[in-house]
Write a structure and sequence with these properties.
Elements lengths: L1 H36 L8 E5 L2 E9 L6 E5 L7 H4 L1 H4 L7 E6 L15 H14 L7 E7 L1 H11 L4 E9 L12 H12 L8 H4 L2 H4 L5 H11 L6 H20 L6 E5 L9 H13 L4 E5 L11 H15 L1
Parallel strand pairs: 3-4, 3-5, 5-6, 6-7, 7-8
Antiparallel strand pairs: 1-2, 2-4
Helix pairs in contact: 5-10
Length: 322
């Protein structure tokens, strides 16, 4: 029995040693790769300081347009500017485009600042202002979690919002009974911080922007570089932990009737079954006077899959706002 116990202890010690060794190798490899990638980690956007950290704002398109389309990323999307590129590039001839990369996303700084809805919205609006966006009558294009921010924006500052084009956006009811696994979030952050994700390239390669979108090879390379720096960041985790309270805060004041066009996926990638996810959004839209929706038979990142249909229907929607 003692011999068996000793062998068991030795086996356990060897396993622990190998795990620790793997983590050290992963961390060192990650740091070396980050150093090599530094020269490629450069934005074509405008860096502005808000709340004592830098925010990246990508601005493109027709600066003479009287309408600015603001693309707002879902939770955890590592590179919003590249993620939305397939869609927003279709609008650039006629409209000004803006993508605000929130703290912890893309080329923006990682910050431990509170992610309550008022702080997030303040940073978005202030970033647009500091980036020189003169036309502050916006059409918002929120994806997923940013649906909460967009709807809150429309309630708090209705004069700034001409309409909302929802890209499979979240609504308050989607978070009512959602359980947040803090342990899983922490493990994801730990794995990303020590570079374990580099040993599983299928994770980044399965990203919709790479798999489905129209990014060039160079843009895909940059997306991967951003991914290894902006996955499960402190800012992203804080935002996720705060989302239920943010959704409740929106629901408590939600009387907006700004025109809305929501594109709804089949729920794949949302964590919900198809009909449950669709019903969240359809029920919300049906409660609004100026709301309409389009059903899409595709997964959650609709803007990288059904981009042409979204563009065509959005143009009709925007023209009706004039």
């Amino acid at each position: 029995m003692n011999k068996f116990l000793k062998i068991s202890i030795i086996i356990i010690e060897v396993i622990i040693f190998l795990i620790v060794l793997l983590m050290i190798i992963s961390f060192v490899n990650h740091k070396i790769k980050l150093k090599k990638e530094d020269k490629f980690f450069k934005t074509t956007g405008k860096i502005v300081e808000v709340n004592n950290h830098n925010i990246n704002v990508y601005v493109s398109g027709n600066s003479n347009s009287d309408t600015t389309l603001v693309f707002m990323s879902g939770g955890g999307t590592c590179s919003p500017t590249l993620d939305f590129k397939t869609l927003y590039s279709l609008f650039e001839n006629d409209y000004q485009i803006a993508v605000v990369e929130k703290a912890g996303y893309g080329f923006s700084d990682i910050s431990d600042i509170d992610r309550d809805i008022d702080t997030i919205l303040f940073e978005t609006r202030e970033s647009l202002n500091k980036a020189g966006i003169k036309n502050n009558r916006y059409i918002l294009f929120p994806h997923s979690m940013s649906g909460i921010e967009a709807l809150y924006w429309a309630n708090k500052y209705p004069d700034e919002i001409k309409g909302i084009v929802g890209l499979d956006p979240s609504v308050p009811k989607a978070y009512e009974n959602m359980k947040i696994n803090n342990m899983l979030l922490s493990l994801a952050k730990f794995g990303a911080d020590i570079g374990l994700t580099r040993f599983i390239p299928s994770i980044v390669n399965s990203s919709s922007a790479i798999k489905d979108g129209n990014l060039t090879d160079e843009e895909k390379k940059l997306y991967r570089i951003v991914f290894y720096r902006r996955t499960a960041t402190t800012s992203m985790l804080n935002e996720t932990k705060q989302i239920k309270e943010n959704a409740k805060k929106l629901e408590s004041i939600d009387i907006t009737n700004v025109p809305m066009l929501f594109f709804i996926s089949n729920g794949d990638g949302t964590g919900y079954a198809k009909e449950q996810w669709r019903n969240f959004i359809i029920d919300y839209i049906n409660s609004k006077q100026n709301g309409e929706y389009k059903i899409l038979e595709c997964s959650h990142y609709v803007h990288n899959i059904e981009y042409q249909k979204i563009y065509d229907e959005s143009i009709k929607f925007i023209n009706n706002l004039q």
